[in-house]
Design brief:
By secondary structure, the protein is of the alpha+beta class. The protein has helices spanning 35-42, 46-53, 109-115, 154-167, 174-186; strands at residues 5-11, 29-31, 57-59, 72-78, 83-89, 92-97, 128-131, 134-137, 210-215, 220-225, 228-235. Among the domains are: 1-99, no CATH class; 195-262, no CATH class. The chain is built from five helices and eleven strands; from the N terminus they run E-E-H-H-E-E-E-E-H-E-E-H-H-E-E-E.
Length: 262
């Protein structure tokens, strides 16, 4: 992010990374988990990232903690407003421009974009219609997007964020942008226990463990954890990235706190 590029990886079951041939140029081959450092260390705009990726072979290594090769697709944004998605389908790298700017988990980006056609009738405006000579008004504000999916699946989250962002008022300041992002993310937040599968243990349910907001124009990283809704910020302009500088850890598991008004 220090170069103005944001890099995210999301779960995409069925991902098949590229095969590395014996005669491949080692300088043109890179493992998936080394990819973020390579991109962030060599590029400052998505146009150049795309050209660089087209010359590379990306392969995936089994992750010890997960016990598998992580099936991921990648979402990238730059400080110029560009957005791009990289996927690995049937052993081939696919690079998509993503003017919509939204990505969730499975399925692939083209499927998500095609699915938006099911919701083109929704609107930010209250509906009114005449039926058999009787005029009916919507039940209230928000009636224009009755039918927007409200479940916790990746396709529904994709639709919800896409449309609510489109319907939202334009922002003018950095603070307004952060607050809008926070409110949009609240609409896809998963409380512990509402999304489960049969069985027991940590893998039996999922929840939103943390939220991050990246301001790649002003080089600031905001975050909050499940147990603390306060928003914390790391201003990368104040961080030294000089050679030899000690690594710093960010504690994301902050304690819950409230503001006493008296």
């Amino acid at each position: 992010m220090i170069c103005g590029i944001v890099f995210d990886a999301l779960w995409l079951p069925g991902t098949e990374y590229e095969e590395v041939s014996p005669d491949s140029d080692p300088s043109k081959v890179i493992e998936l988990f080394d990819l973020p450092a390579w991109i962030l260390g060599n590029f400052d705009a998505l146009e150049s990232v795309k050209k660089g990726l087209e010359e590379m072979t990306i392969w995936g290594e089994s992750n010890e903690l997960l016990g598998e090769i992580p099936p991921l697709h990648l979402s990238l944004h730059d400080k110029y407003g560009g957005s791009m998605v990289v996927e690995f389908i049937d052993g081939e790298m696919k690079i998509y421009d993503n003017p919509n700017g939204v990505l969730t988990n499975a399925p692939e980006l083209p499927w998500h974009l095609e699915n938006l056609r099911n919701y083109v009738n929704l609107s930010a405006y209250m509906k009114e219609a005449e039926i058999n000579g009787i005029t009916y008004k919507g039940m209230g504000f928000g009636s224009g997007y009755v039918g927007i999916p409200g479940d916790g699946t990746p396709p529904s989250k994709f639709v919800r964020i896409t449309l609510l962002r489109e319907f939202s008022n334009a922002v003018e300041t950095e603070e307004e942008g952060i607050m809008l992002a926070l409110h949009l993310l609240n609409t896809v937040d998963i409380p512990a226990g509402v999304s489960k599968r049969e069985g027991s243990g940590p893998a039996a349910f999922e929840n939103t463990q943390w939220v991050t907001i990246k301001d790649n124009k002003n080089l600031k990283l905001y975050f909050r954890s499940y147990d603390c809704s306060s928003l914390f910020v790391v201003d990368l302009n104040k961080v030294s990235f000089s050679n030899g500088t000690n690594h710093e850890s960010i504690i994301v598991d902050k304690e819950f706190s409230v503001i006493d008004v008296f």
